[in-house]
Structures are given as structure tokens and as C-alpha cells.
């Protein structure tokens, strides 16, 4: 997360009431801007930067938080995106915003905070690339008005193939609502158990190697 922008005015104090207490002036709110227009301007600036880095720009949001605005940017790629890569693209986005401020004037008036990250598993699946990146996962989706839950077995630009109760169903995207990835605690527990078994086997192999080395030394 990167915080940048112009600092707001520092609050002053004034004397108020019969007791003569010093009370702080209310902090000024963030300057009023058209958030939808600001979001569109920001997206136009940063989308080419994100694409040039090899990522997809999944979402841009602008919200008010007290005296400043919060600009949240979500990026993703096939195979996911590592934290180090998020840090790199965050710096590139920040530099592009600075350049746009210099050339076109402030994109967001006043101080703002830039947050760059990747979507979580709760992100709705609305584009073919979202389905492609979730092959193997259990997904709930509305198909032609009916709720369906199945495992994604394949996805391309035209349709997704889901295993629903043992039957493969090819579903065109124009029949699908937003998909929701289902968290499978049982599969997570099984994966952790398999990792533990592997660690035990590796440890046993090491012990066997030590025994063989000991026998060789005795000879």
C-alpha cells in the first residue's frame, strides 16, 4: 500500500465555552469531487501501464475517507501475482499518476492514498479469464435463472465446462450470472494432511540414510 498526494491543512484550535477549554477545529473533509468521473480518469491513465506490465486491471475504486480519498486498484494475471510484483506495479502506477497530475492537473483534489493489490477468492467471476483462473475450483453460479454448483473443469473465451454431480455441462457465458468460488474446508484439510505425511516420509528417509552412513563408518 502506498500513501501519496498533497497534505491537507493542519487543524487549528479555538477557545470555546465558559470554562475556557481549547477545542480542536473539525478536520476538513476531503474536497468534493465527482467520484465516477475521477475513477474514469484514473483508469484511463493507469490501464496502459498495467497492461504493459503484463497484468489485467480488474477494478479501480475511489472513495472518501475523512480528509482524503482512497484509490484502490486491483490487478491480476494468469498464475496470480506475487507480493514483490504488486510492489513494482504499485510504483509504476504511482509514477503514472504523478505524471498525469503534472500534465493535466490534479486527478484527485487534495490528499489521497493509493492501495494496489490482487482480488481475493470472494471476487465474482464475470469474465472468461476469471473462470480460466479458477479451473479445478468449486463454483456456485446462476444458469438461466437456476442455481448450479459444480467444479470448473475447463474454460475458454466462449464457454465454461463444469462437472455438476458427475455430469460435464458446457455453459456459454451469456447464460451465466456471476460465479462465486466456494471455500472447501475438507479439501484444505486433506491437502494439509498430505503435506504432513510427506514431511514424515522425508524424515524417515533421512533416518534411513543416517543408519546406512553409520554402518559404512563401522566397516
Question: In words, what does this structure look like?
Answer:
It is built from 4 helices and 11 strands, in the order E-E-E-H-E-E-H-E-H-E-E-E-E-E-H. The protein has 219 residues and is of the alpha+beta class. The strands form 3 sheets. A 5-stranded antiparallel beta sheet has the order 10-9-8-7-11. Among the domains are: 35-117, RimP-like superfamily, N-terminal (GMP Synthetase, Chain A, domain 3); 128-181, SH3 type barrels (Roll), CATH 2.30.30.100. The chain is elongated, with a radius of gyration of 27 Å. It has helices at residues 35-52, 83-104, 128-132, 185-218, and strands at residues 2-5, 13-16, 21-24, 56-65, 68-76, 111-117, 138-143, 146-155, 159-164, 167-172, 180-181. Residues 1-23 and 215-219 have low confidence and may be disordered. This is Ribosome maturation factor RimP. InterPro entries: Ribosome_maturation_RimP, RimP_C, RimP_C_sf, RimP_N, RimP_N_sf.
Amino acid at each position: 500500500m502506498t500513501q501519496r498526494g498533497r497534505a491537507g491543512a493542519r487543524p487549528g484550535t479555538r477557545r470555546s465555552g465558559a470554562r475556557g477549554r481549547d477545542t480542536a477545529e473539525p478536520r476538513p473533509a476531503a474536497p468534493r469531487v465527482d467520484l465516477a468521473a475521477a475513477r474514469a480518469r484514473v483508469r484511463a491513465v493507469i490501464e496502459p501501464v498495467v497492461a504493459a506490465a503484463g497484468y489485467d486491471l480488474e477494478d479501480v475504486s475511489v472513495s472518501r475517507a475523512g480528509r482524503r480519498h482512497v484509490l484502490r486498484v486491483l490487478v491480476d494475471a494468469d498464475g496470480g501475482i506475487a507480493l514483490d510484483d504488486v510492489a513494482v506495479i504499485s510504483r509504476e502506477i504511482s509514477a503514472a499518476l504523478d505524471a498525469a497530475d503534472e500534465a493535466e492537473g490534479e486527478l484527485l483534489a487534495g490528499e489521497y492514498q493509493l492501495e494496489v493489490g490482487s482480488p481475493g477468492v470472494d471476487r465474482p467471476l464475470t469474465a472468461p479469464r476469471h473462470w480460466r483462473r479458477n479451473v479445478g475450483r468449486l463454483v456456485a453460479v446462476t444458469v438461466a435463472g437456476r442455481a448450479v454448483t459444480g467444479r470448473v473443469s475447463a474454460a475458454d473465451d466462449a464457454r465454461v465446462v463444469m462437472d455438476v454431480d458427475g455430469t460435464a455441462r458446457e455453459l456459454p457465458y451469456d447464460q451465466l450470472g456471476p460465479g462465486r468460488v466456494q471455500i472447501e474446508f475438507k479439501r484444505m484439510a486433506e491437502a494439509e494432511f498430505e503435506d504432513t505425511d510427506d514431511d514424515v516420509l522425508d524424515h524417515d528417509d533421512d533416518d534411513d540414510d543416517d543408519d546406512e552412513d553409520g554402518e559404512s563408518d563401522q566397516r
